[in-house]
Amino acid sequence: MEKKVDSCSPTCVLEDFFKSEEFERSHSCKEQPNTDSANEQNSKQGSRWRGFARSFRTKSKKSLANLQSFGSFRLSSRSSSMRENVSVAPDFLAESSRKVFALSELQTATKNFSRENLVGKGGYAEVYKGRLPNGQLVAIKRLTKGTPDEIIGDFLSELGIMAHVNHPNTAKLIGYGIEGGMHLVLELSPNGSLASLLYGSKEKLTWGIRFKIALGTAEGLRYLHEGCKRRIIHRDIKAANILLTKDFDPQICDFGLAKWLPEQWTHHTVSKFEGTFGYLAPEYLMHGIVDEKTDVFAFGVLLLELVTGRRALDYSQQSLVLWAKPLLKKNDIRELIDPALGEDYSIQQVNLVLLAASMCIHQSSIRRPQMNQVIQLLKGNPNGLKSKRKCRVPFFTKAFHEET
Predict the structure, then answer these.
(1) CA–CA separation, 341 vs 259, rounded Å?
(2) CB count in 10 Å sphere of residue 145
(3) Are 286 and 263 in contact, with CB atoms under 8 Å apart?
(4) In sequence order, what are the beta bridge partners of 183?
């Protein structure tokens, strides 16, 4: 169960953390002798981040007060405590490869945040396309909604999560800026989001690209769940949060709702719900339970989107999961496949993806596979599913016996 943490403003949490024993431990040089130089270095680093905390109070509040708010298709309010994610932000900020951007640099890159450079807008942020002086194209995420302390807290939360995220299938963070607002600067993905290409493009994605996106996104999620120093639950896996490189490699982005899950905890229990309708797992909606299986369910919905070409929740508010489940039960593959694909797809790969999807969207979280099992399944290796074979899972025989 999730431990309770006293509510405190983000700036208070940040400053308290810099004074805590946890900060001293996490920034001490364990492998070095306790020399004067080491102590001096630690002292300087501690002073640096205490100064950073104070700068939020002086630099951010005035400029953030007048930022406009925008609506979104999200559930209600954000978490009151940011201590877990804030605790790793200094590690990120200490990395020399991360650049601190002045407001003037961001304004120049985005033509003063012009509307023509606006490429995305959500409940808590806007994303602008920009070009740095060296010619590099970037995406600049500017947090826009909430009180100054809420915006700072959201910024530090996402920054803290991304401190230890480094994988080919996750978005690349270049730097940040705190002058005139909270900004995150990321590498620009030339092909935009999966949602924009799957639903907003005249040219339909080929099956080969769709399968590549499915496998790459699964690899990214496995990394978040198992490959990071601490378990990360993304909580907002959806087509709009899968960016595509020039080679259509998928990159998971938007860690604004992500949560750490300590090793000794089985799950978080949250009282306020956030996320995107159509992707939310039943146990999250009913009981507020958050763990790896929350992401697995959302990934199953994403797989259905890739096969069917349908939205997770269409304009008539029909759920893709509720529409697809009867067809999955009947093994009605033809009805499930996106008509835009015609006959140009691998029937074996489609069966594998539908098998994975049907398992991922299972009502019971216990019956859903882990992401490493999903990857093995998508690669055509059923060995990791031996414990699942007793379940009546559609497409199992077809997925491993159909010819390509």
Answers:
(1) 37
(2) 19
(3) no
(4) 142, 177
CA angle 188, 189, 190 (to 5 degrees): 105
Q: Which domain holds residue 85?
A: 10-25+57-187
Instruction: Identify whether residues 354 and 215 lie together within a single domain.
Output: yes
The SS3 assignment for 237 reads coil
Q: Which of 187, 206, 233 is the last residue of a domain?
A: 187
DSSP per-residue letters across 209-221: HHHHHHHHHHHHH
Active-site entry in 149, 154, 236, 254: 236
* Secondary structure of residue 269 in the 3-state scheme: strand
pLDDT tens for each residue of 226-263: 998 889 999 999 999 999 999 999 999 999 888 887 67
Which helix (H) or strand (E) covers residue 63, if one does? helix 61-64
Provide the CATH number for the domain around residue 387.
1.10.510.10
> Which ranges constitute the DSSP H helices of 178-261?
194-199, 207-222
Write out the DSSP string of 76-100.
S---S--HHHHTTHHHHHT-TTSEE
Four-residue CA torsion sign, 56, 61, 67, 69: positive
Residue 172: pLDDT above 80?
Answer: yes
Average pLDDT over residues 116-143: 91
Residue 224 near residue 232, CB atoms below 8 Å:
yes
Q: What is the tally of structural domains in the chain?
A: 2
Identify whether 236 is a catalytic site residue: yes
- Report the pLDDT value the prediction gives residue 30, as an integer from 0 to 100: 34
Give 378's Cβ-side CA count (13 Å radius).
Answer: 24
Q: Is residue 30 part of a domain?
A: no
361 and 334 part of one domain: yes
Do the annotations mark residue 388 as ligand-binding?
A: no
User: What 3-state DSSP class applies to 396?
Assistant: helix
Tokens matching residue 28: 């001490």
For residue 322, what are its two tokens? 């509720």
Shared-domain flag, residues 200 and 183: no
Query: Based on the domain organization, do 228 and 287 belong to the same domain?
Result: yes
Q: 179, 59 in Cβ contact below 8 A?
A: yes
- What is the spatial distance between Cα 51 and Cα 143, in angstroms, rounded to a whole number? 22
The predicted structure's pLDDT at residue 167: 96
Is residue 68's pLDDT more than 80?
no
In angstroms, the CA 44 to CA 34 distance is: 15
Token pair listed for 13:
């949490």
Residues 86 and 150 in one domain: yes
With 80 as the cut, is the pLDDT of residue 84 above it? Answer: no
- pLDDT value for 116: 94
| Position 358, amino acid | S
